Amino acid sequence: MTRPTIEECTENYTKRPVWAEIDLDRAAGNMREIRRITGSNRLITAVVKADAYGHGAVMLAKTFLANGANRLAVSSLDEGVELRQAKIDAPILILGHTAGERAKELIENDIDAAVFTYADSKAFSDMAVTLGRKVRLHIAVDTGMCRIGYVPCPDAVADVKRISELPNVVMEGIFTHFSEADIKDKTWAHEQYGRFSDFIEKLAAAGVTFNVCHCCNSAGTLELPDFHLDMIRPGIIQYGYDASSEVLVDSNKIKPVMSLHCCITHVKTIGKGDAVGYGRHFKADGPVKVATLPIGYADGYARGLSQKTDVLIHGKRARQIGNICMDQCMVDVTHIPDVKVGDEVVLFGEQGDASIPVTELTDKLQTIVHELTCNINRRVPRLYVSGGKIIKRQEYLMYKE
Ligand SMILES: *Cc1c(COP(=O)(O)O)cnc(C)c1O
Q1: Does the C-beta of 261 come closer than 6 Å to ligand 1?
Q2: What's the CA-to-centroid distance between 359 and ligand 1, angstroms?
Q3: Domains and CATH numbers, the chain
Q4: Which residues lie closer than 8 Å to 192 by C-beta, 6 or more apart?
């Protein structure tokens, strides 16, 4: 596969030589595979919260919608408004809590809210009446995650019925969220699903029905096809990663979208007894050729990786040495000939035939991929690549009045 050249990525070194490359062809392929998995009859809500897990919500939303997704989900109203400002008109659902006080902004932006109290729902209904518009609600159901939602019980049925009777309200959906669908043993997921479907039945008996029932995240999308219902809500698999270490994607079909890059800013050889970085944790016991990189933990290259990880240079692995600083870090390039300032470094992703999967980093950090990609900071420009060409460069720090 052709990749943009280092000159293209840095605009001939006129830009900060740090970037996250976002492969839109892979994002498109991943969504087409998710569509294949769930079949043609269901809706797909592409979860693009947290700036599309750090990949850039607007570009990823457009790519997913063009390749099989029907709708979008975010975690807060502000994230939804960002998508509307980018002229995206697909239905958008806020998965988290939206306060009744934000009714005007919600309805004016035509965004769907998750609700789990009568008071918020009443505030949305009142504002919809005032504005002469409708508001679409999704009832959140807590079947065991203990996060948000109605805990199924007779009082909850009565509350939801009252909500359904409010003027200018569309009972668009009802949903729950699995807390443990990403392990092999699906006992708990089945228990949650049982509680969810039982609650839906009780509501139906009370005369309350919904346009779409939904509960599957990435893990459910992959391994619980019987629970796909009217709509699925895949997140992490869209970006090319396994749902967890136990629930895996087909890596021939679903591929990582993000890779992290920079260029070397300094190369020197240190001698026996010299120590690298804060705290002097790496001590040279002979000549060591050190390359300095202009990326650090403030960019999302976590300090916890210090002295534990590798980078790729000239298609070879190089050990990171010394503590990772806020904005810079050092690597040992003694074994790589001809390393010079300006050479490209891959911190995770592929270079030639070599690769450092992001899970190699997250395993060392004892965290999940979601967290690492979300934490790639806004001072790291996103380079959107399609057909081997950069089609958009997203700079976040260029302040304009
Ligand atoms: C984040 C989220 C998802 C997507 O989760 P993944 O594990 O990334 O697939 C789906 N539904 C809800 C309610 C979420 O909060």
Answers
A1: no
A2: 19
A3: 42-239 (3.20.20.10), 258-394 (2.40.37.10)
A4: 143, 144, 145, 176, 178, 179, 215
